[in-house]
Write a structure and sequence with these properties.
Radius of gyration: 21 Å
Number of domains: 1
Number of strands: 0
Number of helices: 11
Order of helices and strands: HHHHHHHHHHH
Oligomer: single chain
Helix content: 55-70%
Length: about 325
Amino acid sequence: MVLNFNGYFIIWNSVISILLIVPIILSVAFFTLAERKIMATIHRREGPNIVGFWGLLQPFADALKLLLKEIIVPLKSYSSLFIIAPFLGLFLSFLSWSFIPFNFNNVLIDFNLSLLVWLAISSLSVYSIILAGWASNSKYAFLGSLRSCAQMLSYEVSISLCVLPVILCSNSLNLIDIVYFQKNTWYIFPLLPISVIFFVSMLAETNRAPFDLPEAEAELVAGFFVEYSSINFAMFFLAEYSNMLLMSSLFVIFFLGGWWPFFNLNFFSYEFWFIFKICLIAFLYVLIRAAFPRFRYDQLMDICWKFFLPFNFIYLLFITAILLITDGLIIPVYFI
């Protein structure tokens, strides 16, 4: 059998996709273990410690348990959409990782508008949640999906406004360029208030505590995926934790200098520093979940629309005025 150019191209893309997906799945698996061990330490109790040495095989045991469970599709659900929804959420999560640069040249897809494309893909992830709730034909699932969509759409606006000052300071929509402009000083220093708002918006965008209201135990059972089981539930779970690591990597790119090392220490590779910073932000995810109580839904929406959005607009105008007055020299030169 002779393969033409298109055949080799398809095989090469398949290999690259597998090389991208497998590390993400392994990272998510061990992130769930790290979360349980960290929370157990904070709560002064034992985490997983039986399956494998120090519980290292616990994520694989959980994955095997979910794979072996029966796939249940509710009788009165819209079965095709019910099955498509988790695939869509997982696909969009993995697709977003294609634009994340781990180094100057270590990125799968790189072009000038990579930041804009990421914003577009992240907005599409709402469809998987609303489809899951609506296709389940359950009032609890549908109400959970509506609450989740309202929360995600609100904080997507906040995240977009947080990204605009970063775009103005770097004068680029390319993620590699944004990191390059932070070689000497990271944007977290001139844009500290925006970085804090971006971090809080990350928690709400990924439905994480203390903003995990769509799946609050005392309100709507398990939220929009209450009717899902087995591999379908696992896909939603995998997409959620993948998005947490994705948002952590974007925070590192926007505000923590990406792969640039601390204090110009070049003892390790650029990829090591990038992954190390992602682990620090992921640790904050877990720490906040263990330390803070859950907000009420009205408080969650008030934070976004009454505090974050007005402040983001004012700070954006402030940064724009500084750049116009100084002809674009203050942020790139004085702070950097």
